[in-house]
Amino acid sequence: MNYDDIQGIVLQERPTPYVGTYVLLSIDHQQDGKVMLKRLLDEVTSAGQWNNPHEGAWVNVGFTYQGLQKLGIPKESLNSFDLEFREGMAARAAKLGDVNESSPEHWEDPLGTDKVDVALALFAPTKEALLQAEEAARRIHCELNGVSVVYQLDVGMNPDGRTHLGFMDGISNPRIEGNHIPNAVGQEAEIKAGEFLFGHLNESGTITQGPQPAELGHNGSYLSFRKLHMRVATFRRYLREHADNREEEELLAAKMVGRWPSGAPLSLAPEADDPALGEDVSRRNAFTYGDDHKGLKCPVSSHIRRAFPRDSLQDSVVNVNIHRLLRRSTMYGPILPKGVMEDDGQDRGLIFAGICSSLSRQFEFIKTDWLNGGNFAGMSTEKDPITGKNEGEGMFTIPDKPIRHRMKEIPSFSITKGGEYFFVPSMTALRWMAELDQHTSKEE
């Protein structure tokens, strides 16, 4: 792999701990957009620069379809992008289950509108370094009246390294074949690079064709960006109402997630949490569901088993490897103090960032068929208990002997507050986009 050509966010895990911010830009004048592009070339962090980033912070960039249009990308190139990307996430909300409270009409402005053209992801190990990254972002659009900031959201790692629901996050990510950069979380099987990068061999044995020409598409990726508000107090109350004591609350939560709060998987620690296992990167992903077809250890409908079924579907025609995502998600908002059972009105949750080469086959398939799909593994009436759109009518089956337990009236614990599809170009593509006028002149 050409690490100097691929943006760092694709191949690299963020450090621990980290702080960050997402900055969304709107392009009102094409010429100012081109100037911004040229400035980006000196600031964007490639995978090869990751261990020694410019000014101690990581800067990566993505563009919406509208953003590429505004930058003057030729029509034939625009038409070579996948339909899902061209339509945008808001237009595909019904398919994704973003309805009722999660529908685009309720999304946070400007998410899901034609105002969002560029996304800058800024991350650093310290707040001081993040300030330097923010200064770099200001330089990118400084004195450009035709480029404006339309949204900014601070993100980071909670002090205990867990999500707002209390679980260790970022544990399970596929390793990319040919990527020799150490993966902090991996012990899973390697996946062909073409599942995440255009112009590389994929799991089907073909080269993943990206946008054209090759200078634009090669070594690029799609990124699915979603802001998910987490109803932490609602989650805690549901556990309290359906368990007799704290130990049962923790077990019920673990059954719904598929892991204990420490990250230890139920498949390896079915009876009680095992913090040592949760911290052991060599063991916490080294499991399958082959010995647990009925879900007695890890329920078939649990969150992690739905998001990545491993060998659960080995008797079906589904090849799970063609549906994998690289997750680069982060937390936002203040922590709800332990023991608090009522909502405090604060916005808190997860910024989901999923990297892939096919929005339909990877992100959208997982969201619709595995997480929200009622027929997943024969669970015709159930959705993901954590991220599914259950809306007070959800059910969740916990297999047990002599009789199973069925949880009912599960509410929606996550609400979509907005989202976008972005194209994450290579460094070569960024230069090609910045010099597009020159290309056109030479051809003429």
UniProtKB/TrEMBL annotation:
Annotated DyP dimeric alpha+beta barrel domain residues: 20-134
Molecular function as annotated in GO: peroxidase activity
Keywords, in A-Z order: Iron, Metal-binding, Oxidoreductase, Peroxidase
Cofactor: heme b
UniProt xrefs under Pfam families: DyP_N
Stated family: Belongs to the DyP-type peroxidase family.
Protein name, per record: Peroxidase
Source organism of this protein record: Paenibacillus odorifer
Taxonomic lineage: Bacteria, Bacillati, Bacillota, Bacilli, Bacillales
